[in-house]
Design brief:
mainly alpha; 2 helices; 2 strands
Length: about 70
């Protein structure tokens, strides 16, 4: 994934991750290189983490949808 990060240049991205998530170490590296919207915050990779983040994620997605 890191080898292809240049392909995301100019593409709106959001990366949220819980600090107790098993993916957290790699997500920290990804966020440092990509500088996406979103954040690292307390929690893990479960519904209790994702459910409160959903409204912000939907606003992000909605703000980047285009009408053709």
């Amino acid at each position: 994934m890191f080898a292809g990060l240049d392909r995301l240049k100019g593409v709106p991205t959001r990366v949220d991750c819980g600090t107790s998530d098993p993916f957290a170490p790699m997500v920290r590296r990804l966020r440092a290189r990509l500088r996406p919207a979103g954040a690292m915050s307390g929690g893990c990779h479960d519904g209790a983490f994702w459910q409160p983040h959903l409204p912000d994620q939907l606003v992000f997605l909605g703000g980047h949808l285009r009408r053709e």
